[in-house]
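stage 2 :: seqdesign
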């Protein structure tokens, strides 16, 4: 139903399923992220778990949380061609544009999740995707640019994570929902731990 099927056999595609599961393990928990905090804030009134999850979903939808992966893809779409990357980065440095998928509030250096995501991408047909070429051009340029290096700005999980979803057939606008399907277990694990403090 989610499209993780082989186009010829119409059966579940083992490579897509493997990539989905590996990415899900990576995404399932990310500490006290906004969605977890929203769920636990709602839980503080001792309400039911569904209400807590609704709060998490509402908080997660924004472009600075689960929507960041979708926002990273939209930004790449606007650049259109690797040749436009220098002009785009100049606008980012002057404050005219945002570069979604770069830098992270928690990581002041390289995002440790990125190598694992790049490993997953090796199993997907991503290298023919023109947006992936733009992403690689951005990283190559930023890795040599004093502006990004002095600020310790590196690609985060959203920058390349969007390619996992789109390569297995998830539409851009469905990426926040796909992210939630990965993170829901972590959110509810935090809820269960938190509620264990109450008799």
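stage 2 :: out
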């Amino acid at each position: 139903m989610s499209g993780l099927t082989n186009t010829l056999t119409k059966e579940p595609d083992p490579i897509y399923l493997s990539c989905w599961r590996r990415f899900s393990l990576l995404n399932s928990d990310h500490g006290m992220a906004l969605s977890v905090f929203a769920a636990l804030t709602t839980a503080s009134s001792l309400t039911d778990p569904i209400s807590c999850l609704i709060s998490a979903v509402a908080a997660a939808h924004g472009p600075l949380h689960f929507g960041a992966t979708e926002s990273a893809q939209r930004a790449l779409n606007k650049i259109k061609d690797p040749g436009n990357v220098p002009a785009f980065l100049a606008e980012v440095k002057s404050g005219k544009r945002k570069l979604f998928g770069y830098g992270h509030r928690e990581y002041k250096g390289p995002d440790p999740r990125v190598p694992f995501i790049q490993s997953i991408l090796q199993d997907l047909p991503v290298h023919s995707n023109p947006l992936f070429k733009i992403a690689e051009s951005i990283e190559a340029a930023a890795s040599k640019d004093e502006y990004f290096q002095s600020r310790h700005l590196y690609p985060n999980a959203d920058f390349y994570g969007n390619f996992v979803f789109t390569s297995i057939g998830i539409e851009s606008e469905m990426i926040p929902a796909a992210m939630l399907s990965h993170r829901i277990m972590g959110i509810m694990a935090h809820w269960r731990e938190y509620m264990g403090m109450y008799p």
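stage 3 :: structure notes
- The CA atoms of residues 126 and 132 lie 7 Å apart.
- The chain has a mean pLDDT of 87.
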